[in-house]
Amino acid sequence: MKGPAGFLLFSLLLVAPHCTEVATQEVQPDPKTPCANWMGGAPGYPGHNGLPGRDGKDGKDGQKGEKGEEGVQGPRGDQGEIGVPGREGPRGFPGYPGQKGEKGEGAFVYRSAFSVGLTERAPHPNVPIRFSKIFYNEQSHYDASTGKFHCTMPGMYYFAYHLTVYLTDVKVSLYKKDKAVIFTYDQFQKNNVDQASGSVLLHLSAGDEVWLQVYGEGDNNGVYADNINDSTFMGFLLYPDLD
């Protein structure tokens, strides 16, 4: 078909679909209104809760706030258990010496001692030898006028003597309370100087006396002393009786 009639038919075919689309759009109901050109349907049921979303990223730290006011002091707590001792610390420096204290009362030092020497030659036999050269006799327990030691403190004593022998033999004895305790004998060698000595431990009671004397009738009396030779006698308290 050609000519004007054909053009008209072609134009109608193009316009018809457009009109149909417009009509279709006009009759669609508005979902936001209960009715649109006709009665709307009943509301649907609420849907199920959706799944939780994923955690978001951590935010940045905010600025530090101002210091708050001090709170009221709380009650005192119970005492805790004693802890384990710590390690010993380093040793400190020595302190300064303290002042000397006063002398105590009631203290008593037991002392008794003497040391004497001979000044005269050939002492008489059978009597105490008088040692008149005093080396030590602070307590005055030795009597130079009698040649005897007098015990004032009971206890254990030590006695010793060392005698120079010259011109004749020597035999001496140490006496305690008129009884000979020990004897010492030395035979003189002519043209020579010899020595005789002895020592002993004795327990003495208060009032006991100890001395030396030549034993015999005078033929054993060679005890000697001069400016270069001494004959000595000594004794001292070892420990007293305290009971």
Automatic annotation (TrEMBL):
Residues of the C1q domain: 107-243
Designated gene of the protein: Adipoq
Signal peptide positions (record): 1-24
Keywords, comma-separated and alphabetical: Collagen, Hydroxylation, Secreted, Signal
Classification of source organism: Eukaryota, Metazoa, Chordata, Craniata, Vertebrata
Organism: Thalassarche chlororhynchos (Atlantic yellow-nosed albatross)
Basic and acidic residues: compositionally biased ranges: 54-70
InterPro entries: C1q_dom, Collagen, Collagen/C1q_domain, Tumour_necrosis_fac-like_dom
This protein's GO CC annotations: collagen trimer; extracellular region
Subcellular localization(s) per the UniProt record: Secreted
Entry-linked Gene3D superfamilies: 2.60.120.40
Protein's UniProt name: ADIPO protein
Segments of this protein annotated with the region Disordered: 25-102
